[in-house]
Amino acid sequence: MRNLIRVFLAALAIAAIYTFGTGAIAESPKVGDQGKAPEFVNIDHWLNSEPLTMQQLRGKVVLVDFWTYSCINCVNTLPYVKQWHEKYKDQGLVVVGVHTPEFPFEKSTANVQAALKQFDIRYPVAQDNMYGTWSAYRNQYWPATYLIDTTGRIVYQHYGEGRYKETEAEIQRLLAASKTAPAR
Description:
There is one protein chain. The protein is of the alpha/beta class. It is built from 6 helices and 7 strands, in the order αββαβαβαβαββα.
């Protein structure tokens, strides 16, 4: 009987992992060339900026941050993303927030604008209500951070909170490499 209970509990644990996942926070960053960064597609509105393209951003280090304003994990990452924007924007880092709604009320441009004001977000934000850019990146979680090198390649990806020192170190590495790379 005890063995049957153990088998049942193990099966239940495995089913829970497959059903609910291991959680974005447990994800380790993916480092290395992951292919060309997709364009921003099917964007409803650009806030804090004119529309941007990856082609325009060539030669810059780009941090793409998938977030939504009512996600507590996303809100917890904002101080770091904002700090990186302020600290490295003059060195060639461009931060682009991609606001992809989880709930219908998050599709409202007025609500997103209010969140930008509330959280004092000054970098460009693309409103991705149709999940076009989300899908192009094959993204699955909020928040998600992608770092793109000066040639337009995704070289770092992290889901969830945490790993802030690792992410910042990668930003610094990419910025340093951009200063020594030959012009293209």
